[in-house]
Amino acid sequence: MDIEAYAGKLTTGAREASGAIANASTALKDTVLHRIADNILQNREFLQKENEKDLAAGREAGLSAALLDRLTLTDNRIEAMAGAVRKVAGLKDPVGRVIDGWMLPNGLKLDKVRVPLGVVCIIYESRPNVTADAASLCLKSGNAVILRGGKEAIHSNQAIHRQISAACEAEGLDPRIAQLVQTTDRALVPHLLQADGYVDVVIPRGGKGLIRAVVETATVPVIKHYEGICHTYVDRGADLEMAVAICRHAKCQRPGVCNAMETLLVHEAEAEEFFTRMGPVYEQEGVELRGCAASQRLMPGIATATEQDWRTEYLDLILSVKVVGSLEEAIEHINRYGSAHSDAIVTTDFARAQRFLDEVNSAAVFVNTTTRWHDGEQFGLGAEIGISTDKLHARGPMALEELTTYKWRVIGEGQLRE
Amino acid sequence: MDIEAYAGKLTTGAREASGAIANASTALKDTVLHRIADNILQNREFLQKENEKDLAAGREAGLSAALLDRLTLTDNRIEAMAGAVRKVAGLKDPVGRVIDGWMLPNGLKLDKVRVPLGVVCIIYESRPNVTADAASLCLKSGNAVILRGGKEAIHSNQAIHRQISAACEAEGLDPRIAQLVQTTDRALVPHLLQADGYVDVVIPRGGKGLIRAVVETATVPVIKHYEGICHTYVDRGADLEMAVAICRHAKCQRPGVCNAMETLLVHEAEAEEFFTRMGPVYEQEGVELRGCAASQRLMPGIATATEQDWRTEYLDLILSVKVVGSLEEAIEHINRYGSAHSDAIVTTDFARAQRFLDEVNSAAVFVNTTTRWHDGEQFGLGAEIGISTDKLHARGPMALEELTTYKWRVIGEGQLRE
To answer: How high is the pLDDT of residue A66?
Structure first.
């Protein structure tokens, strides 16, 4: 079969199967999810055998140790993957929830009810657990899904996907509700991204290059999960002990994730005392600092932050540092150089906290805590498919509810409009 | 100035001015809106003089009488335009509304608050009142707007826009919060559609060709206001008197709009009696019918509906008619051929009404009333910028609330994540 025909089979298949999952009961969906988890655990050896093929190919191709590690399906990770699927089964079904409603003066009764988006296409890289995570979130929210994973994980993804298909078939659900793209040929991807009328949304999960390529090619709507250039601003009069603990956590606890701090802003009135306490902590943690002139004067020997540093998501133990003269300067810096992902202020001043919350244009703004909280599970939303950096539809954590849309229902008794 | 530089000036200008309108008080925004309305009324003669330039050019270019009519700024239309702006001033400000919030077990306090989208770009055709309508909705919802109207209305749009700018300046608001593209050169448009980081959303309002071109070129998110292939299904056992009144209204009251009926489906058990009553009504209204074989047998002489007819938005006194054997067949036809805009059932059966509401995948589904209600004002949402046929962000009427997004606010006392 040629690529275009295969893409058409995937997209029409998903559309045809989408009605079955959209109208499936919560009980059926949860049963299928538990069966997927059972299958994953029962076929651990098969998963690891297939995973070994990817690892061998990866070693051959010279993948870094970090990438090979992310690719590996250890016993623990297989158990965690099954556990995550069961967790989704335990979440509240978003479909059918009435989110608003009223009666009009003419007696028409209106409401808005949550319904699935329809067909979701997820394009992702390397980690094979995304196959199970994304499929279970889409299944629970009543969506058909087309999964397009990276070529490095193709055998692992196929092995996991087989457990999903088997669970659907065992429960009498059309397995086309969760299809994995079986080829690694990149020529297929544009056909998915331009399948208007068949694919309702594309969610790219991966590096900037992947996301940019998807946005440039897609004609169907895209929800981006882009970079996090996150800031912490230590205000004049801040509790410096709290500030040190927050700034250590935001940078060091897990530097490779999108909600980790990349730039530290410090009010000039606190800079000397704060750096005296903070500097040794970062030194001990192995953090490389890149500073403005003022911070270099206070911490001699640190590197110079360039214009490019302020715009960089390091995802590493590197931090750019700037001394600012005022709250306004901090806000302006964040709105100018940040990526509107997650930004925090450490302060004791009520009015300045309010101004920061009002004027920083980010998906999540924090007072006296770490940006690392920005996560659907931590926010109490259950599992998430990612953190949207878009402003439309979903901003911040994209959980089950954000995988739905709504429809209007209008009930009359023959009323006509004048 | 070259086109690219001019586009850059528009988009960076809008971004720079967006903070001023995002943080403006409701009182200031409403004052500016009333001043726009005042300016429009006080400069009626100027508006009509400029409008005459467009009309003369339109006559020269051979525009149809219908298009010339839509373009004309009569006294009544100028008053209606000013009235619409005042109405927006009277609507509730969506910005700052807290839409959800809770406390986490660790004591973190979260909420979600509505904030403006940022910079909205509206691309529209012919009718000059859209300039005032779209600008006032964006202004009230705290957004900067870039308006790109059709070349047929350029002088009228410029004249209206001048009233908006003057009102902003008089109240000390940066007039770049509402900019009109001053050139009709189409080469400018792609620069707006690809202004990632400057334009937050593009809303095309116009025909299918315009919308398709926007979707294919844009890298910034688009919310489409596409066609309405709307159905009414007359169920077995329906109140036929009600059905006749609804089907007359849905087709004839205003056939040129997106929520008018384009296809009538009738259960075979009612077809003979219903057509006997309905046929003469449509004949009197001058409606051309195009039917399936069964409806042709019952109404001899009507034209044959082709496969293409089921997919056509006539926007005219033409109606395709089909006799169906069951509710299932009606639902399948609607989901297959419709545009998921507005679809109605006329029925007395409770279970079948529920099934129709559940299984028809449209933005708005109606029981025992006309699809023509599908409108933000009629739904009680105040003015609308259009009816979204997308599933993401806004589905159906796009009113003030849909011109906002939200941000998460998280308040802590030094809590850190394990």
So the answer is: 86
The total domain count for chain A is 2
User: What is the 8-class DSSP label of residue B402?
Assistant: G
Mean pLDDT to the nearest integer, A168-172: 98
Mean pLDDT in residue range A14-30? 96
**Closest Cβ–Cβ partner in B395, B409, B413 for A407:** B395
Nearest CA in chain A to B199: A391
Instruction: Assess whether A217 and A251 both reside in one domain.
Output: no
Q: Are residues A212 and A338 in the same domain?
A: no
Burial class, A226, CB count within 10 angstroms (exposed 0-12 / middle 13-18 / buried 19+):
buried
A100 contact B CB<8A? no
The pTM (predicted TM-score) of the whole model is 0.94
Structure confidence at residue B206 (pLDDT)? 86
Q: Whose CA is closest to A143, among A232, A240, A55, A19? A: A19
Q: Which positions of chain B have pLDDT values less than 50?
A: none
CB A147 within 8 A of CB A139: no
Q: Is A117 on the interface with B (CB under 8 A)?
A: yes
**Average pLDDT for residues A282-303, to the nearest whole number?**
97
Is A99's Cβ below 8 Å from some Cβ in B? no
ipTM of the prediction: 0.94
B 206-265 residues with CB < 8 A to A: 215-216, 219, 221-223, 239, 242, 245-246, 249, 253
Q: Residue A235: is its pLDDT beyond 80?
A: yes
Mean pLDDT score of chain A, rounded to an integer?
Answer: 96
Q: Does B370 touch chain A (CB under 8 A)?
A: yes
Does A214 lie in the same domain as A176? yes
Residues A130 and A199 in one domain: yes
Letter string b/e over residues B131-152, b meaning 16 or more CB atoms within 10 A of that residue's CB: bbbbbbbbbbbbbbbbbbbbeb
Under DSSP, is residue A32 helix (H, G, I), strand (E, B) or coil? Answer: helix
Window 2-21 of B: residues touching A by CB (8 A cutoff) are 19
Contact indicator for A203, A121 with CB cutoff of 8 Å: yes
Return the pLDDT at B267: 98
pLDDT for A418? 84
CATH of the domain at B361: 3.40.309.10
